[in-house]
Amino acid sequence: MGAESGRLVIVDFSEVISTEVIYRFETPIMTDSLGRRCWDFPKIVEEVVRALTEAAPRGPFESLAVDTWGLDFGLLDAQSSLISNPVSHRDHRTDGYLKKDDELVGVERLHFDTGAQLLEINSIFQLMAIQDQSPEELAVARHLLMMPDLILFALTGEIGMEYTIASTTGLYDTQGNEWAIGLARDLNIPTHILGDVVDAGTFRGTLLEEIQLKTGMGPLRCFATSSHDTAAAVVATPLSSPGSAYISSGTWSLMGVEIDAPIINETTLEERLTNEGGFDRSIRLLRNITGLWIIQEVRRDLKSQGIDISYVELVELARKEEDPWRTLFFVDAPIFVYAGGMISRIQEYARQTNQPVPETPGQLAQATFASLALQYAHTAEVLADCSGLSMPAIHIVGGGSQNAHLSQMTADLSRREVITGPIEATAIGNAIVQAIASGEMADIESARAMIESSEANFGRFTPQSDNSFIGELATLHARYESLIKLEESQ
Fold this sequence. Notes:
It is a single chain. It is built from 19 helices and 20 strands. By secondary structure, the chain is of the alpha+beta class. The strands form seven sheets. A seven-stranded mixed β-sheet has the order 16-17-15-14-18-19-20, sandwiched between helices. Strand 18, helix 16 and strand 19 (417-420) form a beta-alpha-beta unit. Helix 15 (361-387) crosses helix 16 and helix 15 packs across helix 19 (467-489). It starts with a strand and ends with a helix. 48% of the residues are buried.
């Protein structure tokens, strides 16, 4: 499940790893009675059941697992009923809560107690917003379930909380490997809703009988996989050497390195790095970067103006821009978080920073891709410094790995080789955890070796050696750094 779309994928390990998308649907959103932007959970379950019905004739299957984006959750009452539809992190209810919590406990404690990146849309701030804006929901809540666990609950009737998704909440102590109970209490967040956290690969249950009957799927076993989609994607990333970075590229661009233990210090706080859980209780030191969300919203705005341009066409228009660095913006500025009016916000940003205002689809797309590539290059340096690891390569996986233009710019600006693929890393990683849990695959190392031998379409991009471009690099990075500093000063 992604924030833009969900899909059911069959992953086959019989000879080489192969994937087949069986069913795809737009992730449904709705506005609730409180005016909140929500995920339409009943419709999500309906789509999942329809997907399983489509797949059933292709069976039998070994098992099923669910991965989703992080941050968002549903609350269950004492009867295990969903209290309200899960609210999207794109809703405005958390506006101002980072500042509020800074006044209550300090940003240093928010980071040092958890190792989390201080995003105002984190689960911890969503819970604070509920406490203030709709306290009746928390008053009757008995369980907090993150989105993948909530979907598994709808399928199996079993309640659980998996490690990698719990670590995205901003409430999980990655050093102590437990909930940050003291922090939660000091913020008046009820701790009884935070359940036991289990490892990726834990058996969750079989499909409910009613879903077996509806789908024809039979008593399919369900596992809690590495259920944060980025954690799943990293499982399936054949990292070329220790210290190589990954970018799980989709609506978000999550860029990080695999390490054995959390790194939490002043640099990780200032650079907005987070320590999130990986398979086998490893740590993903990463930064959540506002990714292809921006171009998705640009496309949506263009379509509302009667200009229906595909993603591939936008990439090609961007590639043809004569001045690729004409307009830049700090992709993680709060102005770009929310839905609607993205083009006008990019244009207003350009005016406020005294840059040419992008008007055409090509200019808008190139400003977005150039700015993303500069953020990747900036983050690569920060991650290498923080981890103390050399970074010979950057691996880009997921849907965004198909953007060769962005991959080449990333190689050029970072001066590192960029390796792209697999495209279906999240689905493959999800299934690998199931295969390891059921004893059909030995470990993550053998799985990654199998991926390398199975994936015929890895792309490789080396930094261009043009001397005039290399001479321009320092100026480009300085321009982007000035935009970061401008945002930090506000």
